[in-house]
């Protein structure tokens, strides 16, 4: 593929035209004689092969340089002696640019390595020279670029490990080592990442599996680096540990010194009872929230206290600013603390009523966005209404910061039925473009994560890969550790969805991803997620459930949808029927399609026609999606497969139509 300066695709006509361009790219600026092009393009060249090549070149020149004056010399695809050469700048050809970036990464500090390689890996849109894989002239360069890509993945992982977020690296490396099991460096880095997260036993198990694989499949022993790492892990070698935090006391980092000085000056200058302290506190809480862990928990708690303090002062405008300034991006539909969220919504509604009818439109839009965000996942009509009103005001005011906040609210209220991944993808695309122009890093990350989820739902994992890489690169640049939770889970989903790894490897990847949630401060995401992911995996592969889940498994909020299938797996059909009757409709969130499919599976097994019809009606709008993949976390396979099973069991469409009409009131 070729693109113009604005990123629009350039039409290159037929496959021979593309072959000529690819052949010249492989030559890396060197001249390729016309006779060589003829031999490379045809096994049995036609009589006018040379003339045909010249025609292809002329068409390529018109496409690549549409503004070139007639009869003026070409600047990109030039004639040189007996043939042609592509004299493009290095940055104009992805393959050349990628090679240069990877080579330069070896000289950069770890922070820069992660950013540069995340960006470079995002340029890949599939295998190198995929269209020409069977051509001898493309094979060597294809293999070289593929090897370079794998090397870049490992360089990036090594940089991540050195920076500290070894848990994120472990999730990515699990998938990488599984897909490329002969790469000793992949196993070495995975073991090191696991050791750095305190999982010595898992690290040693990885090394032993690598040794067994190499011996059984290749008949070779592990290399010296693998052997040395195993020995170092067993003796807890000092050089394997992570850098320790700065000892307590006066900060010795410039940022720490500046923070200390400014905080001291603020305390000396601003009166303890000044209203400005409330607004300053809210800005600080916003920064604290994106650090994750205890920071996120503390931010939520102190946010409620700040709102209560503002309300006590009886100043609606101040309260509106305190509530609306907490524009922390939200990506997950299930609330972490519903009680706190309800208190925030109530305060926002009171403040909205207290503001004057005219004016303060931006403050009102922020209050409305807050109401929509904190009402997510509920069936209340107020949430979608508030999201629409907030977006209308933001667009009318032409305020990009306000619009980004409103679009986040719109995204959170875009789960009112199944099958809305395309709409969420549109929201994510606007968020990315808007935020990139305005320098809104938090919302740009959010936009990429939204698109990661939406493209996963639509089965477009190449695009989802690019958004995951972009989100990770921004997260490293702006120190947003929570992003790695979502991209780490996506790596496990990606391994699951490709179907190339054995179930045991996928289960291990999901367990690694679950480790990212420890102390992340997101109970609404963490509760019951790992068992649900493993349940979906085992159901897809028609594996027994009783061996994977014990009686005391914490299913979190997903218990009602898991219980019928677990009972069925144990042969308890009467109890299964009772549990299925008690199963509610799924909530309006990321996992509603997956939960409907679980209900459908149980109903199919029991022959419950009424429940099957309900499930078919609910899932039909999502026929083009992968069940659950819109979460970016797990999948139960194509929704269309479940719909086909339901339609077959129901024996026709009349009953489905009647049920659809009854449920929609038409």
Question: What is the count of distinct domains?
Answer: 4
CATH topology of the largest domain: Serine Threonine Protein Phosphatase 5, Tetratricopeptide repeat
Taking Cα atoms only, what radius of gyration do you get, to the nearest Å? 28 Å
Shape: globular
Contiguous uncertain segments of 5+ residues: 242-252
Number of strands: 3
Gap between N and C termini: 47 Å
CATH first level of the largest domain: which class?
Answer: Mainly Alpha
The amount of beta strand, in percent, is under 5%
Portion of residues within helices: 55-70%
Biggest sheet, spatial arrangement of strands: 1-3-2
Named CATH architecture of the largest domain: Alpha Horseshoe
| The CATH superfamily title of the largest domain | Tetratricopeptide repeat domain
- Determine the number of helices (DSSP H or I, runs of at least 4 residues): 31
The secondary-structure class comes to mainly alpha
Let me know the average pLDDT.
88
Report on the biggest sheet.
3 strands, antiparallel
Detail the topology: elements first, then pairings:
Blueprint: H1 15-26, E1 32-33, H2 34-41, H3 49-64, E2 77-80, E3 83-86, H4 94-105, H5 110-121, H6 136-163, H7 166-179, H8 184-196, H9 200-218, H10 224-234, H11 254-269, H12 276-289, H13 293-312, H14 316-324, H15 338-354, H16 361-374, H17 382-397, H18 400-412, H19 421-438, H20 441-457, H21 461-478, H22 483-498, H23 503-515, H24 523-526, H25 529-540, H26 559-569, H27 573-582, H28 592-606, H29 609-619, H30 639-650, H31 654-664
Antiparallel strand pairs: 1-3, 2-3
Helix pairs in contact: 1-3, 2-3, 4-5, 4-6, 5-6, 5-21, 6-7, 6-8, 7-8, 7-22, 7-23, 8-9, 8-10, 9-10, 12-13, 13-14, 13-15, 14-15, 14-16, 15-16, 16-17, 16-18, 17-18, 18-19, 19-20, 20-21, 21-22, 22-23, 23-25, 26-27, 26-28, 27-28, 28-29, 28-30, 29-30, 29-31
């Amino acid at each position: 593929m070729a693109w113009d300066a604005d990123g629009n695709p350039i039409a290159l006509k037929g496959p021979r035209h593309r072959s000529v361009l690819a052949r010249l790219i492989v030559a890396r600026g060197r001249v390729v004689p016309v006779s060589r092009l003829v031999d490379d393009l045809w096994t049995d060249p036609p009589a006018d092969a040379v003339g045909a090549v010249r025609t292809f070149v002329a068409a390529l020149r018109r496409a690549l340089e549409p503004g070139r004056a007639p009869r003026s010399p070409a600047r990109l695809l030039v004639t040189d002696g007996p043939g042609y050469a592509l004299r493009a700048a290095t940055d104009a050809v992805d393959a050349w640019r990628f090679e240069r970036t990877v080579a330069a990464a070896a000289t950069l500090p770890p922070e820069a390595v992660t950013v540069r390689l995340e960006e470079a890996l995002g340029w890949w849109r599939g295998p190198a020279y995929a269209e020409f894989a069977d051509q001898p002239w493309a094979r060597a360069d294809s293999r070289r670029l593929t090897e370079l890509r794998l090397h870049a993945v490992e360089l990036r992982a090594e940089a991540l490990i050195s920076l500290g977020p070894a848990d994120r690296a472990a999730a990515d490396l699990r998938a990488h080592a599984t897909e490329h099991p002969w790469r000793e460096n992949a196993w070495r880095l995975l073991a090191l990442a696991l050791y750095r997260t305190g999982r010595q036993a898992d690290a040693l198990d990885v090394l032993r599996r690598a040794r067994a694989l190499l011996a059984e499949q290749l008949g070779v022993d592990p290399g010296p680096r693998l052997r040395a790492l195993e020995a170092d892990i067993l003796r807890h070698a000092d050089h394997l540990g992570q850098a320790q935090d700065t000892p307590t006391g006066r900060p010795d980092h410039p940022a720490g010194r500046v923070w200390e000085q400014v905080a001291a000056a603020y305390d000396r200058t601003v009166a303890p009872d000044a209203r400005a302290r409330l607004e300053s506190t809210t800005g600080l809480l916003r920064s604290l929230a994106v650090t994750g862990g205890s920071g996120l928990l503390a931010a939520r708690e102190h946010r409620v206290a700040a709102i209560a303090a503002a309300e006590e002062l009886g100043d609606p405008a101040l309260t509106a600013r305190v509530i609306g300034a907490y524009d922390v991006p939200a990506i997950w539909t299930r609330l972490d603390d519903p009680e706190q969220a309800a208190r925030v919504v109530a305060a926002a509604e009171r403040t909205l009523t207290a503001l004057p009818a005219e004016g303060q439109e931006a403050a009102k839009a922020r209050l409305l966005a807050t109401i929509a965000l904190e009402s997510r996942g509920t069936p209340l009509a107020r949430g979608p209404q508030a999201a629409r009103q907030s977006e209308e005001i933001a667009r009318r005011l032409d305020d990009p910061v306000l619009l980004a906040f409103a679009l986040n609210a719109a995204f959170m209220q875009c789960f009112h039925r199944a099958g809305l991944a395309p709409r969420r993808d549109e929201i994510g695309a606007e968020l990315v473009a808007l935020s990139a122009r305005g320098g809104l890093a938090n919302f740009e990350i959010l936009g990429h994560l939204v698109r990661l989820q939406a493209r996963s739902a639509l089965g477009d994992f190449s695009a989802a890969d690019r958004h995951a890489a972009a989100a990770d690169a921004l997260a490293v640049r702006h120190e947003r550790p929570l992003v790695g939770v979502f991209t780490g889970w996506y790596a496990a989903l990606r391994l699951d969805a490709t179907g190339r790894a054995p179930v045991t490897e996928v289960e291990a990847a999901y367990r690694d991803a679950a480790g990212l949630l420890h102390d992340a401060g997101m109970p609404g995401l963490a509760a019951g997620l790992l068992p649900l992911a493993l349940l979906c995996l085992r159901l897809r592969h028609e594996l027994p459930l009783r061996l994977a889940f014990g009686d005391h498994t914490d299913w979190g909020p997903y218990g009602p949808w898991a219980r019928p299938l677990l009972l069925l797996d144990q042969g308890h059909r009467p109890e299964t029927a009772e549990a299925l009757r008690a199963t509610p409709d799924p909530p309006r969130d990321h996992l509603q399609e997956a939960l409907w499919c679980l209900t459908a599976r149980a109903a199919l097994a029991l022959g419950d026609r009424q429940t099957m019809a309900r499930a078919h009606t609910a899932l039909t709008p999502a026929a083009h999606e992968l069940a659950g993949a819109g979460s970016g976390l797990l999948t139960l396979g194509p929704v269309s497969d479940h719909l086909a099973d339901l339609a077959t069991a129901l024996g026709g469409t009349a009953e489905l139509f009647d049920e659809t009409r009854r449920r929609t009131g038409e």
